Amino acid sequence: MSRQFLPVSRRRFLQSTTLGAAAAATGILHAPAVLRAQGAPVKVGVLHPVSGALSYSGQQGRIGAVMAIEEINAAGGIKALGGARIEAVLGDAQSTPEGGNAEVEKMNGAGVAAIVGGYASGICLAASQTAARYDLPYIVDVGVVDAIVTRGLKNTFRFGPGFGVIAKTALDNLVTINDQAGKAAKTVMIVHEDSAFGAGLAKLLNAQLPERGFQILETIAHPTPTRDFNNVVLKIRAQNPDLVIPANYYNEYVLLARTMQQQRVRPKGIYSVLGGAASSYKFVKEFPEAAQYIMDCNHWFDPKNPKALALKKKIEEKGEFYTYEVYMNYSCVLLLADALERAASADRAKVIGALESSTFAGHVMPYGPTKFVNGQNQGAAPVNTQVINNDIQVIFPAAFASAKPVFPMPRA
Amino acid sequence: MRRFAPILIVLALLATVPLVTSSNVVLNFLVVALLIALVGQGWNLLGGYGGQYSFGHAAFFGTGAYATAILQVHYGINAWLGLFMGIAAGALVGAVIGALSFRSGLKGSYFALVTLAFAEVLRIIASVAPITGAGVGTLIKLDLRPEAFQFQSRAPFYWIILAMVGLSLVLVRMIEDSRFGAYLVALRENEDAAQALGVNTTMVKLLAMTISAAITAAAGCFYAQYFLFIDAGIAYGPWISVEALLAPIIGGIGTVVGPLLGALVVKTLGEATKLVTGDAPGLDLVIYGSVLILVVAFAPRGITGILLDLRHRLVSRKPAAPASLGRGHG
Amino acid sequence: MLSSVILVPAVLNGLMTGAVYALIALGLTLIYGVLHIINFAHGALLTAAMFAAFFAHKLLGLDPYVAALGLTPLFFLLGYGLQRFVIGPAAHGEDRNILLVTLGLAVVIENALLYAFRADTRTINLPYAFDVVEVGTAFLAVPRVVAFFVVVAVALALWLIMRWTDTGKAIRAVAKEKRGAELAGIDVAHIYAVTFGLGTACLAIAACLLIPTYYVNPQAGNAFVLIAFTIVVLGGMGSVTGALIGGLFVGVVESLSSLYLGESLGQIGIFAMFILVLLFRPSGLFGERA
Hints:
Distance between the termini of chain A: 85 Å
Largest sheet of chain C: 2 strands, antiparallel
Largest interface: B-C, 43 and 48 residues
Structural class of chain C: mainly alpha
Strand order of the largest sheet of chain C: 1-2
Helix content of chain C: over 70%
Oligomer: heterotrimer
Number of strands of chain A: 14
């Protein structure tokens, strides 16, 4: 046994763990890759509903999260942990809260440092609560129900905006856009799906729109799935509102927009809140005519951020659509990686501490400065997008805008 | 007492699980399996013993869950009290649906469809009524105190659901041995004959449905406390109606331990297929469904049937005589 | 507020939608009437047919109405095979087993589609999808009008088959008196499979009628299952004419109740009707037999 090799390798080992980041960055250490990667991998739970009713969104979310993890690993892993690789522990919530809950138990058993994902509010509520039992940091990717962050769970963080903020922003922006157009719209009809997300939004809109000088002609709730929108559109046609505000999921949105086109219903504007045509490249590609000039207040990436555009290119090269689930999960993983760097540890309490004090700016979202208060990122806000000539442009707020709003819709 | 000994042995063995393993993955898995066993036991009383196939046990599960949740959230009623009120509410819904359907003489597929429709109506109402939180659902406040029927650790939850399952096992065994149980089986085998012998079949079915609903509602109450969040799709969705009938049919319909066995096997199968297929969305459920078909094809009397055959073979060294359906005492 | 300007189009819409419901229910009611089983796989088979129609358009460039000519016999064979070689043998003639087998089939089909095609919602954009026929104040999309007339034709064809062909007579014989039919030399297993095949073939046509205005994903067919059950019960289980009239009726009721009660609560109108019919007239409103 050649003892003389031992000190060398031990010194290298120490260097790679304690000085890893600096050493690797400045190139002092020319150890082979095997040695550089000696920090034990950090396990991160990636939880999405990849089967069942929500599987499309879940699968998109997983793509975003996994892509971020691959990029982090390719760029040298978590440097403060000696270039530790992130190891994704994938979980399928099967589109149910019980499924999400069971996966959290498994992930906890597998020793993950944190969990990212959930997608649906119901899954996020159950999963984050289970994670709280183990003081396991949980980053909500989408789940917009406000109760997610108002339960006083110290482990739960939401990087994106919740209902309250989304509805308020949607409203403020609508008023501004409408004012700029000389108050073109006065009457409104709301069409929303009747589960947590649509019903919650409709409630907020109903409380606030009248105060802002709009008259709500009618609020129409519909279940998911709804097979036929002809009657909804009939009502819209009969009451002829200036503005239609849909808040529903993609499938129902497609049917609604197509039926409106069939029935020749052209209000002055369609202003969708969460999940309309103006936040779906797929819809714009498949139904360019029905999509033209639709506005949307939704999660969106920062069109001026080169990283966001690079990601877009990468996703589209894979033949996937660049949907909000992708970049929100991508950003959430980056947020977590940053916290791991600053905590310089995979210890759960330390990661929670690092998330609480996070000012992370390396994400791809059009958000203000990152600051968590009771787990909610105060900088998070949706933006307004509009379909203009077969592309989706950000039209508001001005700081992120890539085009000016076209409102009211020009009559063809 | 001898008739209860096997039940008590099984319960005692299951009760030691938290002492043997501290894995919450295992405990959580067992809690969910026991929850399904309880739902299934409710279904089994009416469907297995009484031969009335309900496709709408979600109606009772959901009523139990919502009653517990709403009483706590809106009326500040203690969760333990809420549990009993939830069970009572479920029983009431069962009695009402039962009274309406049995008085109209609905049986077979007609009964199955009417229960399905009732569950759907309740689901739709829950998705629009303000008291249930409409589409947003109802969130029970996190309050980890035993007085509030919430626990920091999984073990107490496990023992509680085990106790509930245990009670349901004992109750069904007692019914099996009672005159009421005999009437129930008689009407399953031949309703006209039972009626001719002077059995008030409508009353017997109604009573069975009420108890059945109460058992299933208890599972709903537990669900609400365990997950602290319900919405219309969870509480009244068709998924729970399917679980309710799957467990007893797989385990052995019309037997005391059938639902428990079935729930454990179905849930284990679900987990196993997930392990085998890794993260290929959908593939695990393809295998799950295929195995389900194979089980039905080759073990039409459920697992209890297989076990009985085996025992018979071991004892008599002869092929088991085809025992009449559901007569086994697992 | 809701004048005839809106009422007439709503009724017409209900008829158009109801026609497709009727076709899906036709398949279900045939299977129920003869085999006395509740086919849980009906929704999943509809989804499979919708995927088939989608890919026929996408890969082969076939118009859905043309694709229907090929898919209908194909799905007849699929249904025939499923009943003959899977459901029949696995079920041992027990109702509850049939229930489980069809449930298992539904799980397998739905998830195989998920595994193969992922959960994307897919739509096809046909040049005539946005053309409309104007009837008074109503705009009716061309594909929906086509669907209406195709369904009426299919129902008529089915009725003729049931009434005048030997197979149709055999099917009716098995439905009425299985033992007697067996004694009369009818191959019951074959007739069961033919019936299941016919029911599945109806789904293929329904899928081709739906796809121009609807979408497909691995769950798409499920949305039509409960409503189909309602129609089956309403029309009288096993009745072809009942399913057609029941479908149109339910379409109109759904349309009107969603108009007055809202889309969410409007669904209750259908189920309330469903429950009331079951409780007070279980042979169906237009039932020939129960």
